[in-house]
From TrEMBL:
<feature type="transmembrane region" description="Helical">
    <location>
        <begin position="135"/>
        <end position="158"/>
    </location>
</feature>
<feature type="transmembrane region" description="Helical">
    <location>
        <begin position="203"/>
        <end position="225"/>
    </location>
</feature>
<keyword id="KW-1133">Transmembrane helix</keyword>
<feature type="transmembrane region" description="Helical">
    <location>
        <begin position="101"/>
        <end position="123"/>
    </location>
</feature>
<feature type="transmembrane region" description="Helical">
    <location>
        <begin position="307"/>
        <end position="329"/>
    </location>
</feature>
<feature type="transmembrane region" description="Helical">
    <location>
        <begin position="281"/>
        <end position="301"/>
    </location>
</feature>
<feature type="transmembrane region" description="Helical">
    <location>
        <begin position="22"/>
        <end position="48"/>
    </location>
</feature>
<comment type="similarity">
    <text>Belongs to the tellurite-resistance/dicarboxylate transporter (TDT) family.</text>
</comment>
<protein>
    <recommendedName>
        <fullName>Sulfite efflux pump SSU1</fullName>
    </recommendedName>
</protein>
<dbReference type="Pfam" id="PF03595">
    <property type="entry name" value="SLAC1"/>
</dbReference>
<feature type="transmembrane region" description="Helical">
    <location>
        <begin position="245"/>
        <end position="269"/>
    </location>
</feature>
<comment type="function">
    <text>Sulphite efflux pump required for the secretion of sulphite as a reducing agent. In the presence of sulphite, cystine in keratin is directly cleaved to cysteine and S-sulphocysteine, and thereby, reduced proteins become accessible to hydrolysis by a variety of secreted endo- and exoproteases. Excretion of sulphite mediated by an efflux pump also represents a detoxification pathway for dermatophytes during infection of the epidermal stratum corneum, hair and nails, which are rich in cysteine.</text>
</comment>
<dbReference type="InterPro" id="IPR038665">
    <property type="entry name" value="Voltage-dep_anion_channel_sf"/>
</dbReference>
<keyword id="KW-1003">Cell membrane</keyword>
<keyword id="KW-0813">Transport</keyword>
<dbReference type="GO" id="GO:0000319">
    <property type="term" value="F:sulfite transmembrane transporter activity"/>
</dbReference>
<dbReference type="GO" id="GO:0005886">
    <property type="term" value="C:plasma membrane"/>
</dbReference>
Length: 364
């Protein structure tokens, strides 16, 4: 997700700053290919793990935190779908359009499955406490919001207006699945922070996660409004002014969500400024939420148009790229020293086995 949003940011910069378009385009492609490599390797390793050790699948699903990260799978895939539509579909045309559309539908199915299944799993299988809650609860819920924003990108390359309309309508439904539920979780999370104070240092980075649905929701509703402005008149759907209404409505809602995201950005920065926290995989939580917030800011600047939002979005985007470099260096270093990856569900099993072994020794 973090690498994918960096590739999308470079692509956006290449359109905003034509004088540096060639260099920015190359960087965008480089990060896109790196994203495909990382996604493919991690997906293969994960699939092999659950295929070779099937019992770990059930252990993972029952873990109240680790299971939530399944939502990152469709979100990471969405960044690949977006870049494929932005870069390769215009070049290749033909069957590449249908491939992009098929990829998006796969992403939609997995996103909906995560959004429906994992929260219900929390209600029925997990042992949760309010004081230990983290913003990771948002991960499966954000997946359909990301798919909705991706739907606007896919609709922009579909030659058949009717197919584009189906994609847009589906994307609005996906947006409606995710944003209200994400706001519900954000309210609960705010209450948790107010009553039980900041999370432990190990998971303090999770305070950035609420920025994700707000930033992506803002970008997605603007992108869908932009496509509605074009597609609704072509298909004569609803009223002749429906596209214009959705466009204006999308901008207003995006501005409100952006303002709400600004509040959480302040909370996040203030929280980490008070904490010293060790490097772990959670540091990747810096990149995607702030990256989509930067995309929302850039899009606001394009739609108005506004130099203020464009410059601010560029500053946010540049910060995300620098954060990616910092986190990537830390990740490579910790992988080399073998101190990064762990499976919380297996760690809990190891503890249980150790306790059982200790009791047996005491009995003897």
């Amino acid at each position: 997700m973090g690498t994918g949003i960096v590739s999308i940011l470079f692509h956006s910069f290449s359109t905003l700053y034509p004088s540096h378009q060639a260099a920015l385009h190359i960087l965008s492609l480089a990060f896109f290919l790196l994203n495909i490599l990382i996604f493919s390797v991690i997906l293969l390793i994960t699939a092999l793990r659950y295929f070779l050790y099937p019992a770990t699948w059930d252990l993972m699903l029952r873990h109240p935190v680790q299971s939530l990260f399944l939502g990152t799978l469709p979100m990471g895939f969405s960044t690949i779908v977006n870049m494929f539509c932005l870069v390769y579909v215009p070049k290749w045309g033909g069957a590449s359009v249908q491939i992009a559309w098929a990829m998006w539908w796969v992403d939609v199915v997995v996103s909906v499955a995560c959004c429906f299944g994992l929260p219900f799993q929390m209600m029925t299988k997990h042992q949760n406490r309010h004081e230990t809650m983290t913003a990771a609860w948002l991960l499966p819920i954000v997946a359909p919001i990301v798919a909705a924003a991706s739907g606007a990108v896919v609709a922009s390359v579909l030659p058949n207006p009717q197919h584009a309309l189906w994609t847009i309508i589906t994307s609005y439904v996906l947006w409606g699945m995710g944003i209200p539920l994400a706001c519900v979780v954000i309210v609960i999370y705010f209450h948790r922070l107010a009553v039980h104070k900041l999370p432990p240092q190990e998971v303090i980075v999770s305070v950035f996660l609420p920025i994700g649905p707000l930033g992506q929701g803002a970008y997605g509703i603007m992108a869908l409004g932009n496509m509605s402005l074009k597609v609704f008149p072509e298909t004569q759907a609803l009223h002749q002014a429906a596209g214009e209404m959705l466009f204006v409505f999308g901008f207003i809602v995006a501005l409100i969500l952006w303002g709400f995201g600004l509040v959480w950005l302040f909370f996040a920065l203030a929280s980490i400024s008070r904490s010293k926290f060790p490097f772990n995989m959670g540091w990747w939580g810096f990149t995607f939420p702030t990256g989509v917030f930067a995309m929302a800011t850039l899009t606001l600047g394009q739609e108005l148009p506004s130099a203020f939002f464009r410059i601010l979005g560029t500053a946010f985007g540049t910060s995300v790229i620098l954060l990616w470099l910092l986190v990537a260096i830390g990740t490579v270093s910790n992988i080399y020293h073998g101190s990064l990856f762990e499976a919380p569900c297996l760690r809990d099993v190891e503890r249980a086995c150790a306790m059982a072994t200790g009791k047996e020794r005491q009995a003897v």
